[in-house]
């Protein structure tokens, strides 16, 4: 959205972000969820202390943040404290940030952009494709669930965006939804030092 020229799609995306993503009501609605996830973190640390096992605080905090984000977006946990999925997701995001911060010779010599001499664009594209595939699976499952009669709509961001896409008042499609969802984890995951 930041690189789009001021136009109707840009205005629509801005309106969606203002009314669906960054509202005080949405933040207030997740207050109980934030408390629940912090309690899960404390329970995990407590269980680890009882078992006399070491706790990687950075990994545990990352898992908590990923679960907060994924519950806000999809109403599901993306990672668990004993799995390595959160580490893989962290590695993907860290790699994107590292590649984006790497000086690219093609930025200084535009004639080289099509060649991508350092391979930065190719690596970032591969990582974004992996993340979009994760979101694509979640979105596909949700669309299938919404088609059933037993579906109970959750009040997460994905349902709100799918409702807007069905309503077609904001000219949203699945590609735009995936890219909007992709921007949230990149903004919220803690940076490694």
From TrEMBL:
It comes from the Eukaryota. Pfam families: p450. Transmembrane segments: none annotated. InterPro entries: Cyt_P450, Cyt_P450_sf. Gene3D superfamilies: Cytochrome P450 (1.10.630.10). Belongs to the cytochrome P450 family. This is Uncharacterized protein. It comes from Xanthoceras sorbifolium.
